[in-house]
């Protein structure tokens, strides 16, 4: 009896210790750890990183502004195509320069390959533009706008903000943006309107995020300036036709940029996560050198 009391209980099942399988002694809680993986956030760092979200919201705002301007006749499709194509070429040259300067050339694509891809996209878009103009004639405008709002929201939700989460899907985000552009293009007047809208959507939903990620990776100092520059441009353009939309956008920007980070930082001390021997075992594979 004395030997049994002196024998220390071990957390194993392959040996008979003369106790039930669910028995634990006081040493079971010795491995208890609280808030093991809790991160401490710096407020201004979180504010700066929230720009990844507001930059995408600003991009959606610019896309809507371009549609409203063309719908009201304030902007010709030729002008939109010229401006966006010029900015895309500048952005492409900037990306090539950054990749060359930081020696980040993971792709074997050449300039000729990129030109061929751009011409193929442009050719298909222009060839399908006459179809897009009359694609949704039997659907009411309210339904088209509702579908567009849902697709733009989907683009915002599934966009890649730099976190590897299950919800992230670059393909789904891009397709939602393109679907929204097709819906709006079907409500414009001419083939050039439709072509310019679809082309602009490819540039702002497909190419523009790639350039932003490239800048964030190699020149992170540009993010705060890019965030506020997009905010100023978008709010000014929205103000030209809707004061309510501009105020709503500015309020949303301030809420995401300053209020949400403060909320996140204030909630960190309230965390009370526990870790211990009851957690599921994780097998870690060691690399053999």
From TrEMBL:
UniProt entry tagged with the keyword Repeat: no
PANTHER family to which the protein is assigned, alphabetical: PHOSPHATIDYLINOSITOL GLYCAN, CLASS C, PHOSPHATIDYLINOSITOL N-ACETYLGLUCOSAMINYLTRANSFERASE SUBUNIT C
Family per similarity comment: Belongs to the PIGC family.
This protein's pathway: Glycolipid biosynthesis; glycosylphosphatidylinositol-anchor biosynthesis
Name this polypeptide is given: Phosphatidylinositol glycan, class C
InterPro entries noted in UniProt: Plno_GlcNAc_GPI2 (IPR009450)
This protein's UniProt keywords: GPI-anchor biosynthesis, Membrane, Transmembrane, Transmembrane helix
Pfam families assigned to the protein according to its UniProt record, in alphabetical order: GPI2
Location(s) in or outside the cell: Membrane
Ranges that cross the membrane: 79-98, 118-136, 192-211, 223-241, 247-265
GO biological process, one term: GPI anchor biosynthetic process
Source organism of this protein record: Mytilus galloprovincialis (Mediterranean mussel)
Positions in coiled-coil regions: none
